[in-house]
Amino acid sequence: MFSRWSHSHHNQENDSLQHESKVKELRAALRPLSDRGLKYCTDACLRRYLEARNWNVDKSKKMLEETLKWRSTYKPEEIRWHEIAVEGETGKVYRANFHDRDRRTVLILRPGKQNTTSLDNQLRHLVYMIENAILNLPEGQEQMVWLIDFTGWSLSTSVPIKSARDTINVLQNHYPERL
Asked: How many CA atoms, within 13 angstroms, populate the side-chain half-sphere of residue 144?
């Protein structure tokens, strides 16, 4: 019994060393980066992209380069509340005033409170809320929790399929390992 734990502990240390090696390899493959890219590409960020692509450096690099390109045009860090405030009037997405047991930030989504038809603004609002939640994550915490309350939701209040696809694309390709 003890030897299994010891063996398992040894494997964890070995995995950790291999993962750190992959982080360094990915960082080297990404050079050169802009100031904005350098700020975004922390070791924790690189680990998330590597984890999302099963520690494959080439696939992680491609994914991260796409995100950097998206961030340079979409500029999520420059979205301001007054630009998307109408989207938040009904409380369809908000950051909870509590954390879960693991101290993760909690976002509450209430699709039944849908109040607008602008797909672009809806996505900008969601990106703003995600970026805000990330800024409020405790030190060392990389993930957040989403609670989805479907009270009041119906087909008439649901977002169009295109909006859902665009949202899923942004979440899986530009915020890997965050949920």
From this structure: 24
Backbone region of residue 103 per phi and psi (left: phi > 0; alpha: psi in -120 to 50; beta: other values): left
pLDDT tens for 11-49 read 667 788 999 999 999 999 998 888 889 999 999 999 999
Return d(Cα 26, Cα 35) in angstroms, integer: 17
> How far apart are the two ends of the chain, measured CA to CA in Å?
34
Backbone angles phi, psi at 94, to 5 degrees: -155, 160
Residue 64 and residue 15 in one domain? yes
Provide the number of structural domains found in the chain: 2
Other beta carbons within 10 angstroms of residue 63's beta carbon come to: 20
**Residues 6 or more apart from 164 whose CB is under 8 A from it?**
none
User: What are the φ and ψ backbone dihedral angles of 150, each rounded to 5 degrees?
Assistant: -90, 10
Q: Are residues 162 and 120 in the same domain?
A: yes
The C-alpha atoms of residue 157 and residue 146 are separated, in whole angstroms, by: 20
Is 179 within the bounds of a domain? Answer: no
Q: Which amino acid is located at 67 in the chain?
A: T
Report pLDDT digits (tens) over 109-119: 999 998 888 89
